[in-house]
Amino acid sequence: MEPSPTTSQHKYLTSPKCNIPPFHLERYTSVYAHRFIFLRMNGSFDEWTGGQIQDTYSDGYQNIRNQLADLAYTGRFDKAIELIQQNDCANSWRLRTADEFDTRPPTGWTTLHQAAILPTATLSHIERLITLGAYRNLRTLDTNETAYDLAKRHNRPRDILAALKPVNRRGLSDETIANLQRGQDEVIMSRVEKLVKEHKFRMPPVEVLIELQEMHFWCPIPGFYGGFHIQMLDDNCIEMESFCRVVGGSGEKHIVNPDGTWKRTETGLY
């Protein structure tokens, strides 16, 4: 008999970021679901939170993201770092309502992006943000710039530029990164296209994946009650395992090749 969620798992499952209705908790007893819950709770890999519509998340989580965006925009980085420490939200940006999304889309500016340009951000602030998980490779949505790009454009000191320098652990070319991104996005759309469009979901960037020490992360999809575990393999292919927690046998595995082609390798999992 499979175990029921523990108290700590229950707390994580009902957190605003996890976005899981409490009335489904009794169904989250699969070994696969527990595997990802355990790893996420113990910090074994990052989580990509890509929903961009306010109603996707709880009021409490919306408020946290808006508060953090305000603190970062006004250069109050001590307070911003304190909020990030409390809520594990180093890579969040301001959400939009569904009505304003098309006319006033998200800029995608995280706290690190703001710290890259504002003089109130010291090297210590930037290093602390990176320690808390801020992605150096993540680009803004409006200008398509990394924090390093922004800092360089604003003539920030050399030590800050050095701290913000993007990381490419595999030395992949821009072409290969673009190919992998295209293939990964196609896999996600093949599974959850309707939900991606409904929640204006921002696809997880391959550029971020190759920055991570472990080179894998969990990507929950709002409304899917599950998501994708995305991992860079030794041969620079991307392995994607996906499942819906409330549908037995929904698990699938896909492999994305460096040229952007992909195939489904397993079905009916978990």
Question: Which strands sit side by side, in order, in the main sheet?
Answer: 1-2-3-4-5-6
Give the helix proportion (percent range): 25-40%
Whole-number total of structural domains: 2
Determine the structural class based on helices, strands and strand pairing: alpha+beta
Largest sheet: 6 strands, mixed
Number of helices: 10
Helix and strand pattern: HHEHHHHHHHHEEEEE
Q: If you compute it from the alpha carbons, what radius of gyration comes out, rounded to the nearest whole angstrom?
A: 19 Å
Strands, count: 6
Question: Which percent band covers the strand fraction?
Answer: 5-15%
Cα-to-Cα separation, first versus last residue: 14 Å
Shape: globular
Are there runs of 5+ residues with pLDDT below 50, and where? 1-14, 19-32
Q: Name the average pLDDT.
A: 88
Descriptive account of the structure:
The chain has 270 residues and is an alpha+beta fold. The chain has two domains: 7-44 and 174-269, no CATH class; 54-164, Ankyrin repeat-containing domain (Serine Threonine Protein Phosphatase 5, Tetratricopeptide repeat). Helices cover 38% and strands 13% of the residues. The protein has helices at residues 7-13, 31-41, 59-73, 77-87, 111-117, 123-131, 147-153, 158-164, 174-198, 206-209, and strands spanning 46-47, 216-221, 226-232, 238-244, 251-256, 262-269. Strands 1-2-3-4-5-6 form a six-stranded mixed sheet, with helices on both faces. A hairpin with a 5-residue loop joins strand 3 (226-232) and strand 4. Helix 5 packs antiparallel against helix 6, helix 5 (111-117) packs parallel to helix 7 (147-153) and helix 7 (147-153) runs antiparallel to helix 8. The longest helix is centred in the C-terminal third of the chain and has 25 residues, at 174-198. The relative contact order is 0.13. Residues 1-14 and 19-32 have low confidence and may be disordered.
